[in-house]
Write a structure and sequence with these properties.
Strand order of the largest sheet: 2-1-5-6-7-4-3
CATH architecture of the largest domain: Roll
Shape: globular
Strand content: 25-35%
Number of strands: 7
CATH superfamily of the largest domain: Electron Transport, Fmn-binding Protein, Chain A
Structural class: alpha+beta
Helix content: 25-40%
Protein name: Pyridoxamine 5'-phosphate oxidase family protein
Distance between the termini: 45 Å
Radius of gyration: 21 Å
Order of helices and strands: HHHEEEEHEEHEHHH
CATH class of the largest domain: Mainly Beta
Number of helices: 8
Largest sheet: 7 strands, antiparallel
Number of domains: 2
Organism: Martelella lutilitoris
């Protein structure tokens, strides 16, 4: 079976062709991009317990990674600089390796219950500065390193995507039990999940136990 092939008659291959499809950007939308944090952006970051980190490797392949902690986990070092703690993960180090190869990053800050978001683009470096890491300790454990982002542009993003998706509306929440567990999905995709239901439950319980002891 061959994969989907886009019809080249309908491809958009240059920026002018793209912009011809849409009305001109509004003056307010063009002006809203700031070169540094203002009071509103700083307050948003201090409230946010979650962000998505976009990076790109030397080969041009993109990646997006979720980052989460108690609200305000991202430190505002000054109006042009942020620090993001790197907590324990699966040690693939995709984002960190990408930053070493290509420092350009994009951040999307999300606050539960807020439909608008904050976007920041800039360049990142990795640091093991002991004083900075200690200031980001949780439960007595400092991160192994921090991602320090030099800000190039900051702007608020409107609520349309969140309104369309009903992301925070409980009436649209889906039952997690209706979908296979993370452990089963990964085992199905790799070595194969056990057929025995009790064994699968034990594996799922082990993962939950590891969450309790390995978040920090």
């Amino acid at each position: 079976m061959t994969g989907y092939q886009i019809n080249r008659d309908f491809m958009i291959e240059d920026e002018q062709s793209l912009r011809d499809l849409f009305p001109p950007v509004s003056a307010l939308a063009a002006k809203k991009c700031l070169p540094a944090l203002d009071a509103h952006a700083t307050a948003f970051i201090e409230r946010a317990p979650f962000l998505c980190l976009g990076t790109q490797g030397s080969d041009g392949r993109g990646d997006v990674s979720p980052r989460g902690d108690p609200a305000g986990f991202v430190k505002v070092l000054d109006a042009n600089t942020l620090a993001i703690p790197d907590r324990p993960g699966n040690n693939r180090l995709d984002s960190l390796s990408n930053i070493i190869a290509n420092p350009s990053v994009g951040l999307l800050f999300i606050i539960p219950g807020f439909d608008d978001t904050l976007r920041i683009n800039g360049t990142a470096q990795l640091t093991r500065d002991p004083a900075l890491l200690e200031s980001m300790s949780v439960q007595g454990r400092a991160p192994t390193l921090a991602i320090v982002v030099s800000i190039h542009e900051v702007f608020m993003h409107c609520a349309k995507a969140f309104r369309r998706s009903h992301l925070w509306d409980p009436a649209h929440f889906q039952d997690r039990a209706s979908f296979p567990s993370l452990s089963k999905i990964i085992l199905d995709q790799t070595t194969g999940a056990p057929d025995d239901e009790d064994e699968m439950k034990r594996i799922d319980a082990d993962l939950e136990d590891r969450y309790k002891t390995s978040l920090y």
